[in-house]
Amino acid sequence: MKLLVILLFSGLTTVCGGNSSHSLPPKLLLVSFDGFRADYLQNYEFPHLQNFIKEGVLVEHVKNVFITKTFPNHYSIVTGLYEESHGIVANSMYDVITKKHFSDFDDKDPFWWNEAVPIWVTNQLQKNRSSAAAMWPGTDVPIHNTTPSYFMNYSSSVSFEERLNNITTWLMNSNPPVTFATLYWEEPDASGHKYGPEDKENMYRVLKEVDNLIGELVHKLKVLGLWENLNVIITSDHGMTQCSKDRLINLDLCIDRSSYTLIDLTPVAAILPKINTTEVYNKLKVCNPHMNVYLKEDIPARFHYQHNDRIQPVILVADEGWTIVLNKSLPKLGDHGYDNSLSSMHPFLAAHGPAFHKGYKHSTINSVDIYPMMCHILGLQPHPNNGTFGHTKCLLVDQWCINLPEAIGIVIGALLVLTTLTCLIIIMQNRLSVPRPFSRLQLQEDDDDPLIE
Ligand SMILES: [Zn+2]
């Protein structure tokens, strides 16, 4: 009984448990390993990452946003917005009004980024706080005239070690202190494209390297004394799926190139018609059964991918593993960008630190939910967003969260306590009352009367 009460009490305190006194301002490091597909965690070994998870939390699947490409998804993580709302709708974009172009190699114009306010800008604008970034997409652009106090211009040739060194230096020796930092790494995306996720041998090697980098990160944070007070989120932008030369969709077989401008190609093609839009649409509609063709106004609502000038009048969405090409061979063995309801497109999320529970596993959240959670951890007022803070409450120590197993445990515990108390009361009452001697049941006179006269 005593044990039961203790268990029940400790269960309740675990559930409601608050984050006790922390005099230091909360700090958060957000890390992305590009293209880290969620089920790599089940299919490969990650000793360092598993150690990190053991002392923290894991979200097995993060449902990301459509289109499942790098720039759009990294911006959704830090703004909590769908692509139509933050304006980074693809890795390659064209704005019809200003006639501006955006690509992986030409991404520095704030025009593209200013439709939203990323968390590093909000954090940077607080009194006595600053932000730092090692190559997260957009962090080297003055968004709303603000960059992080410390950032690196993007270059894929800079080593992980150098990026990590910078981040830890900034986290330790800055005034005002760096309270929000980001770190970005190109793998396992680059190798996922090159080999395809079904190439077990190469992916094993690459994922082992990624795990070693996570080991280095944790080791460095521990050596520098940052580990205990720093919140660290490790996540990714999207997954990866296998492509094949046997799954090509050749647009040249269906439509003349002179009738449209191609803004983006695969697996979501963005088509700007030069002639009548309906004519272009009708030709593409019957082009290939492994591709959905949408007029902008008919794009399914679940994609949240319609209300932005940068989304072109016709978009083509290839089925998983299919590649849209212009009369040429397969460009990559692995790709992403497909429908965001496909689990192969989902990344994971792991987190560790004073804000997070230890040893807690959660099945799924949306990538747009990460932003309100990060704002909560840092005590920042979030901008309007598409995320739901409630989805991440179970990950956080200072939040009341009921998940099903805990709720069942509490109900069963409470019932057991009540039953035991009732039994005790009955036993005590029986003991206190004087036992009556057995007496024969006396029938009253009326009872002998016949029921029917
Ligand atoms: Zn990516």
UniProtKB/TrEMBL annotation:
<keyword id="KW-0479">Metal-binding</keyword>
<keyword id="KW-0325">Glycoprotein</keyword>
<dbReference type="GO" id="GO:0046130">
    <property type="term" value="P:purine ribonucleoside catabolic process"/>
</dbReference>
<keyword id="KW-0472">Membrane</keyword>
<feature type="signal peptide">
    <location>
        <begin position="1"/>
        <end position="18"/>
    </location>
</feature>
<comment type="similarity">
    <text>Belongs to the nucleotide pyrophosphatase/phosphodiesterase family.</text>
</comment>
<keyword id="KW-0356">Hemostasis</keyword>
<dbReference type="InterPro" id="IPR002591">
    <property type="entry name" value="Phosphodiest/P_Trfase"/>
</dbReference>
<dbReference type="GO" id="GO:0007596">
    <property type="term" value="P:blood coagulation"/>
</dbReference>
<keyword id="KW-0812">Transmembrane</keyword>
<dbReference type="GO" id="GO:0005886">
    <property type="term" value="C:plasma membrane"/>
</dbReference>
<protein>
    <recommendedName>
        <fullName>Bis(5'-adenosyl)-triphosphatase ENPP4</fullName>
        <ecNumber>3.6.1.29</ecNumber>
    </recommendedName>
</protein>
<dbReference type="GO" id="GO:0030194">
    <property type="term" value="P:positive regulation of blood coagulation"/>
</dbReference>
<keyword id="KW-1133">Transmembrane helix</keyword>
<keyword id="KW-1003">Cell membrane</keyword>
<dbReference type="InterPro" id="IPR017850">
    <property type="entry name" value="Alkaline_phosphatase_core_sf"/>
</dbReference>
<keyword id="KW-0862">Zinc</keyword>
<keyword id="KW-0378">Hydrolase</keyword>
<keyword id="KW-0094">Blood coagulation</keyword>
<dbReference type="GO" id="GO:0047710">
    <property type="term" value="F:bis(5'-adenosyl)-triphosphatase activity"/>
</dbReference>
<keyword id="KW-0732">Signal</keyword>
<keyword id="KW-1015">Disulfide bond</keyword>
<dbReference type="Pfam" id="PF01663">
    <property type="entry name" value="Phosphodiest"/>
</dbReference>
<dbReference type="GO" id="GO:0046872">
    <property type="term" value="F:metal ion binding"/>
</dbReference>
<comment type="function">
    <text>Hydrolyzes extracellular Ap3A into AMP and ADP, and Ap4A into AMP and ATP. Ap3A and Ap4A are diadenosine polyphosphates thought to induce proliferation of vascular smooth muscle cells. Acts as a procoagulant, mediating platelet aggregation at the site of nascent thrombus via release of ADP from Ap3A and activation of ADP receptors.</text>
</comment>
<feature type="transmembrane region" description="Helical">
    <location>
        <begin position="407"/>
        <end position="427"/>
    </location>
</feature>
